Amino acid sequence: MKLFTRRPKTRTEIEEEQFILAAKSLKTLQVPLGGCMSIDPEELRHQIIASRERYKDLVRRDGH
Asked: What are phi and psi of 38, to 5 degrees?
């Protein structure tokens, strides 16, 4: 007899988990007690450029 059944994760829950994992991978991310976040802009820039390169094959550039 199962007491707890797992329901499938919603798309929003999956996206939130992916965001949290991405945020945790940033080396210069800081969150002080006040709750404001700060990060080195250069690290963020490098992450964005690397992501664009990694996924550029998924985007069509023929104007459609």
From this structure: -140, 150
In tens, the pLDDT along 2-54 reads: 677 888 899 999 999 988 888 788 888 888 888 888 888 898 888 888 888 88
Predicted TM-score of the model (pTM):
0.48
Phi-psi region of 52 (alpha: psi -120 to 50; beta: other; left: phi over 0): alpha
Q: Where are the domains of the chain?
A: 28-64
**Other CB atoms within 10 Å distance of the CB of residue 63:** 4
Q: Residues 6 or more apart from 9 whose CB is under 8 A from it? A: 17
Report which residue type is found at 18.
Q
